[in-house]
Backbone:
């Protein structure tokens, strides 16, 4: 059965892990077909490259259960492209696109009963790490690697009906090093932890908006957008920040709805001035599109709009979720159907790819 689970609102995002995971290993750069196995501790050599030299990257994407009960993966291809780019920049073996997509589709299918009803989703976490057992390989890439993916039934990361977010602006320290901003590697998050922890303790901030030297980049776990009735403005793609799939999707949906989309540099002065008349939001797989209600800059609080998520943020969030949950047309094939509706007689047996992309081709054959 694929009856939806209910994620307890008390369970923190990412703390509940589904019973089945997917694993693929590589030998000399070639990955073997992934296996779907019970979730269990990994057997890792204590000399593994990733544990010493940080050769590890990951992804985060979601499968959504629609109101029609169909489970759809959202933009798996873009997340897999980013995983492959991260692997390349970390000199890890790069898995084939089809292999990873197939692995993710099979992972969702194996955990169908764990996909919560909206507003929950099944969050998928593929991880790629270098496994060469060699503590002398500081200057040599790992030839062997392990790719595995976990599934986690999640609720809202930021509650949709919760208060708008409070961001502390950091103008000195960057989130990460400029050449690794676009890599989804754990070290980037570790580097930001101290700054985020201090902003929480000192200013009650939910997150930090990194703007080194005044250049507004992103927060510790999501991209940053300015919105008003006519425009959506965000930093143009460069190597300094993570190129969010949600960011890209929101910009596309916004353009479809008639907003003018501006991708360009933003400085702190413009952001502070925008607070008087416009809206701000964080875009990310976990955050979806979460409204910002206040900024803290040089110890002073600046309210954004009336302090609650704005109507344009709500409008775009609703439009994005409608595509993810199959309530709106998906002309670009962003979603991949992983299950048919359990209301039909073919439940769990015959995945259909009617309106989604053809990503399922490989896995339908397996
Ligand atoms: C640092 C950072 N920026 C941006 C994002 C948004 O990326 P995406 O929309 O692909 O989830 C994330 C989400 O994981 C993130 O961790």
Residues:
């Amino acid at each position: 059965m694929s009856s939806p689970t209910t994620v307890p609102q008390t369970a923190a995002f990412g703390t509940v892990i589904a019973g089945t995971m997917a694993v693929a290993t590589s030998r000399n750069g070639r990955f073997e077909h992934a296996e779907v196995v019970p979730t269990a501790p990994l057997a890792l050599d204590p000399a593994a490259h990733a544990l010493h030299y940080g050769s590890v990257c990951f992804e985060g994407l979601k499968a959504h259960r629609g109101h029609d009960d169909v489970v759809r993966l959202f933009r798996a291809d873009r997340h897999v492209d980013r995983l492959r780019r991260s692997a390349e920049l970390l000199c890890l073996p790069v898995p084939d696109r089809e292999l990873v997509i197939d692995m993710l589709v099979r992972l969702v299918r194996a955990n169908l009963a764990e996909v919560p009803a909206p507003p929950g989703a099944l969050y998928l976490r593929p991880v790629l790490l270098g496994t060469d057992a060699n503590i002398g390989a500081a200057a040599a890439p790992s030839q062997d690697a392990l790719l595995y993916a976990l599934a986690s039934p999640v609720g809202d990361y930021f509650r949709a009906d919760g208060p708008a977010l409070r961001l502390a602006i950091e103008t000195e320290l960057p989130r990460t090093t400029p050449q690794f901003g676009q890599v989804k590697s754990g070290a980037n998050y570790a580097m930001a932890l101290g700054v985020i922890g201090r902003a929480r303790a000192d200013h009650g901030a939910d997150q930090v908006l990194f703007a080194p030297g005044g250049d507004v980049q992103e927060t510790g776990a999501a991209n940053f957008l300015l919105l008003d009735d006519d425009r959506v403005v965000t930093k143009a793609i460069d190597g300094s920040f993570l190129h969010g799939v949600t960011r890209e999707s929101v910009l596309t949906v916004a353009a479809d709805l008639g907003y003018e989309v501006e991708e360009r540099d933003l400085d702190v002065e413009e952001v502070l001035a925008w607070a008087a008349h416009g809206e701000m939001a964080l875009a990310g797989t976990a955050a979806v599109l979460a409204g910002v209600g206040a900024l803290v800059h040089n110890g002073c609080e600046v309210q954004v709009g009336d302090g609650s998520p704005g109507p344009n943020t709500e409008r775009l969030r609703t439009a994005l979720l409608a595509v993810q949950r199959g309530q709106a047309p998906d002309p670009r094939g962003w979603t991949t159907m992983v299950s048919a509706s359990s209301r039909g007689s073919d439940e769990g047996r015959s995945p259909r790819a009617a309106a989604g992309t053809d990503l399922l081709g490989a896995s339908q054959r397996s």
About this structure: The longest helix spans residues 186-203.
